[in-house]
Amino acid sequence: MAVGRPRGFDVDERLDRALEVFWRQGYEGTALSDLTEAMGINRPSLYSAYGNKEELFRAVVLRYAEGPGGHLRAALLAPTARAVVERLLRGTVEVVTARDHGGCLFVQAALATGEQGGRPRDELASWRRSGELELRRRLQRARDEGDLPGDLDAADLARHVMTTSHGLAVQATHGATRAELDRVVELFLSGPPWAESPA
Amino acid sequence: MAVGRPRGFDVDERLDRALEVFWRQGYEGTALSDLTEAMGINRPSLYSAYGNKEELFRAVVLRYAEGPGGHLRAALLAPTARAVVERLLRGTVEVVTARDHGGCLFVQAALATGEQGGRPRDELASWRRSGELELRRRLQRARDEGDLPGDLDAADLARHVMTTSHGLAVQATHGATRAELDRVVELFLSGPPWAESPA
DNA sequence: CCCGTTCTGTACCTATCAGTACAGAAGTGT
DNA sequence: ACACTTCTGTACTGATAGGTACAGAACGGG
């Protein structure tokens, strides 16, 4: 049995190029011609390898979650609740300020969309929620281990942390530098100047 | 001199309808047909009254800044730094959870865009920066008045607050409720559970 | 009442959108 | 070397994007 002409490009490598485009321009801001140009392949190759624009985006998101977005999961391995939070936020700062374009794909690629961007938008929303859920479970464990006050709601703290993480991503899109965002993390960890010691 | 047929609609009222659409769908996610349909006017009327899509968007943003986005400026009038911050964040929570669609126009209408959305995106970024600047000046004054520690950088605190404000807007887009976001504000104000008293 | 001016509605423009048909190129297994 | 399969490149599809020409409707001033 014959096996056919082999594909002339590496699917994962070109997926990374698509990732860059979606990251910078968002789902609806990216045209197929932007993708084929950046990926160095033509339209039928794209469709045969990835399905269509929406499925390509889904593949991109998955790759982002395992690559740049992986700092969240990594942070959960830190030994204490405070260390988890610090690693998570410092990881966020690093990712959102790494490229010339700033920000986080999960946040900016499809935050508000028209009808055709509805599915990608909902999927990103789901990714954000699931990240928060993982953090919450880790903090819950910390509380069970006595690493956090017993009267503290782990869900609230997780939401607080993720709010800042997503906010850092927004800050990066309008030009905040890494040093500036690092100071945000420090202020987060130490609390506002009027903070009192925990009861 | 003749004066011509009067316009058959109220420019500001229809602008509010356009605001709703851009708020929900973002700049690039909104088609002209979405706008004309929601505004109840036809294309030539839209062009003659507002210029084009980009200028209409600019008018919408201005109106947003004076309406829903006005809570920031209002918060600056509070007497103490802490009260300013609390009012600002509580105002954010209210705005981003008010409609069935969540979020903040400044954040979500054009965060990452293609080429044609570049100007709107940059303008929103500029609005976000200028909001932070106003808060920073207010906090600077608070520090001068002894309302904040002398070694505290007002720019850092302002950035910290705006990071959370923008993060709240993102949270709202994936379904966080008002009660949940209110607890984020409370955690922000009290600091994380491991916070120590300010030196 | 009627002229001049401005708005409204229809119908159209070009460009671009996502997606695909089809023919030829480039391989592999026999 | 040949047959079979799969990929690549060109060229196209219908739909929709933002934007506009033009004719007629609706007013105000004289």
From TrEMBL, chains A, B:
Keyword list, A-Z: DNA-binding, Transcription, Transcription regulation
Q: Which InterPro entries match?
A: Homeodomain-like_sf, HTH_TetR, Tet_transcr_reg_TetR-rel_C_sf, TetR_C
Keyword Ubl conjugation tagged = no
Residues annotated as DNA-binding region? 31-50
Keyword Transcription on entry:
yes
- Domain HTH tetR-type as annotated: residue spans: 8-68
Matches recorded under Gene3D superfamilies: Homeodomain-like (1.10.10.60), Tetracycline Repressor, domain 2 (1.10.357.10)
Top-level taxon of the source organism: Bacteria
- In this record, what's one Pfam family? TetR_N
Q: What is this protein identified as?
A: Transcriptional regulator, TetR family
Q: Which organism is it from?
A: Actinoalloteichus caeruleus DSM 43889
